[in-house]
Amino acid sequence: MADITFRKEDFIKEDERYKVEVEQGIGKGVDLIVERENENGEYEVIQAEIIRSPDERVFVAWSEPFNGRVVSDEYKKL
């Protein structure tokens, strides 16, 4: 799986949080890592909520919109 990037502008407000849909095709059981872009343009890992809807859509939820990306740990092989 390639990195999935998103921008602040992609988020929509839902109740007290913001969420952004990430592209479909993310397999079940895949460990996803959410990274937020900081002011230096570097990425830092955050513990954002990952939501999978009944129709298999995947969302990242957070208290505020941010520029970031979703990466997978599928590259790790034993």
**What value does the average pLDDT take?**
84
Strand order of the largest sheet: 1-8-4-5
The secondary-structure element order is EEEEEEEE
Report the major sheet. 4 strands, antiparallel
**Beta-strand residue percentage:** over 45%
Helix content: under 10%
First and last CA, distance: 18 Å
The number of helical runs is 0
Describe this structure in words.
- The mean pLDDT is 84.
- 12% of the residues are buried.
- 0% of the residues lie in helices and 46% in strands.
- The protein contains no helices and 8 strands.
- With 78 residues, the protein is mostly beta strands.
- The radius of gyration is 12 Å and the shape is globular.
- The strands form 2 sheets. Strands 1-8-4-5 form a 4-stranded antiparallel beta sheet, with no helix packed on it. A 4-stranded antiparallel beta sheet has the order 2-3-7-6, with no helix packed on it.
